[in-house]
Amino acid sequence: MAGRSRIKMAGLTNKDQGSIAVVQADSDDVAGLAKLARVDIATLNLFNFLAPPAAAYEFDRIYSNEQWQKKCNWLRHCVSSLEADIIGFQEVFSVDELKALMLELGYPHFAVVDEPGCEDYVCRAPVVAIASRLPLLEVVAVEPDPAALAAMDLKADFRFGRRVLRATVNLNDWGMLDIYVLHFKSQRPLFEPEALGDMQAAPRLLAHRALGSFASSARRGFEAMLLYQAMIMRRDETAHPMVIMGDFNSGLDAAEFRGFWLGADAIHGNDKQAAGLGGLSEQAFANAISHFTLKDASVLFLEGQLFDRQSGGHHGTDSTEDLSWARRPTHYLGSRGSLLDHILLSQDFDGALAPARGRVCHFSVFDEHLRSPKYERDSESSDHAALVVGLELL
Question: What gap in Å lies between CA 283 and CA 270, rounded to an integer?
């Protein structure tokens, strides 16, 4: 089974805490939960959430006190607009400051699974975090499975570039929900041009772009599939429904993420026989495989909207005339937009399946600061949109 690493609820200053830990919610907190009909879950890349006088990546990239207050005020506005019960964050440097701000906003439960990497006052390795109105029963860092590393011919000390957080939430009588918060490698080349040695400038730049970008894609692919393998093992053990969210740094149609969508038709009949599953009917085998496949929350929302329009039903779903916004870019580099942030769900939330345990009743993209920014409010915001999904619990 994938390993688990010890954490603190914030700070992470003790490096000798051991290898396994569980964050337990008070039993009174769990017992006091009212029956839930819906839970809203969001993800947001904060873009260098780092309080002064520390610097992000470069020695001179330091917020002034005024800029920092504007960034915190923007986050207050964003979180209030999202109205989410649980929020996953990326690019967190100032852990204690984020924890305090989220407590102020009504999120008493907060966790990280790593500490930011800083040298002197320059920080270059942010972490992910989770804030919740609901108690977090367990929070662990997901680690690659050693057997999978060996099978993929990777070094035994291979680790996620940014540690992936898994939190388990008790949704009262509905049951447990596993939430994964991730931040995969960016699309920037994995290494500098100088690593290619003695070449002329122009061909070295071309080779650097080709090799470096491929290396970044490969890194994302290794991390994505090692995470998926750990998720499969966890789901096989617990059967918990899953939410996977964060900054994937690529579109979901990228080759490195294709494993998320594999179905029974991708498995050769000989492999099925060798695994001792030859006696299963095609439908039974398809059901066994689909138990572990993932769905894009925005697609499930759009499919639900289309079904409601065609059937004349509503089912508590937020209606809208134009659904194209659900696939809008979540990040802009100049005028070029990319859909980099995603929320994925296990098939428990596919309302087209019977029996589904939930359905996507809402999906929204918070991107006003990207599409029509107001300087006073948005000048120190984020370069990413926030996503929020509403899950109706059946």
Answer: 17
The Cα–Cα gap between 377 and 120 comes to 31
Domain that holds residue 132: 4-9+18-393
- Residue 298's CB: how many other CB atoms inside 10 A? 24
> Whose CA is closest to 363, among 315, 318, 314, 331?
318
Q: How confident is the model at residue 16 (pLDDT cuts 50, 70, 90)?
A: very low
**Percent residues over pLDDT 90 in the chain:** 74
Query: 19-22: long-range contacts (C-beta < 8 A, 24 or more apart)?
Result: 21/140, 22/138, 22/139, 22/140
- Read off the pLDDT of residues 294-315 as tens digits, 9 standing for 90 and up: 999 999 999 988 776 666 655 5
Question: Binning pLDDT at 50, 70 and 90, where does residue 320 land?
Answer: very low
CA-based angle 241:242:246, to the nearest 5? 165
8 A C-beta contact, residue 182 and residue 227 = yes
pLDDT at 26: 53
Listed in sequence order, the residues at least 6 apart from 158 whose beta carbon sits closer than 8 Å to its beta carbon are 144, 149, 222, 226
pTM, to two decimals:
0.89
Q: Tokens representing 315?
A: 């089912």
Structure tokens belonging to residue 87: 């929020």
Total domain count, the chain? 1
Q: For 233, phi and psi rounded to 5 degrees?
A: -60, -45
The CATH number of whichever domain residue 282 belongs to comes to: 3.60.10.10
Tokens 């659904």 sit on residue: 323
Cβ atoms < 10 Å from Cβ of 156: 8
CA distance 285 to 20: 35
Q: In whole angstroms, give the CA distance from residue 139 to residue 29.
A: 16
Confidence of residue 11 (pLDDT cuts 50, 70, 90): very low
Q: From the centroid of its chain, how far is CA 254?
A: 16
Q: 73-76 — which CB contacts under 8 Å span 24+ positions?
A: 73/377, 74/369, 74/377, 74/378, 74/380, 74/381, 74/382, 75/46, 75/49, 75/101, 76/101, 76/104, 76/105
* Residue 118 phi, psi (nearest 5): -135, 145
For 36-69, write each residue's pLDDT tens digit: 899 999 999 999 999 999 999 999 999 999 999 9
Q: Are 114 and 12 in contact (CB under 8 A)?
A: yes
